[in-house]
Design brief:
Structural class: mainly alpha
Largest sheet: none
Order of helices and strands: H
C-alpha cells in the first residue's frame, strides 16, 4: 500500500465522518422542531377543550333561561 492510497483512504474516512456529524446534527434539529410542534398542538387541543367546556356551560345557561320546563 503506498502513501497516496493511505492518504486517500484517510481523506475519505474524514469526509464520511464529517458528513455523518452533519446528518446527526440535522436529525437532532428536526427532532427538536417536531417536539416543539407536538407541544404546541397539545397546548392548542387543551385550550380548545377548555373553551368548549366554557361554551357548553354558556349555552346550557342560555337555554335554561329561555325554556320554561316547569309549566
Amino acid at each position: 500500500m503506498n502513501v497516496s492510497s493511505v492518504a486517500s483512504a484517510v481523506t475519505s474516512l474524514k469526509a464520511a465522518e464529517t458528513a455523518s456529524q452533519i446528518q446527526f446534527a440535522v436529525a437532532a434539529k428536526s427532532l427538536n422542531q417536531q417536539k416543539a410542534q407536538g407541544a404546541a398542538v397539545v397546548k392548542l387541543i387543551q385550550s380548545a377543550s377548555e373553551n368548549l367546556d366554557a361554551s357548553i356551560a354558556g349555552v346550557s345557561d342560555a337555554v335554561g333561561s329561555l325554556l320554561d320546563v316547569a309549566g
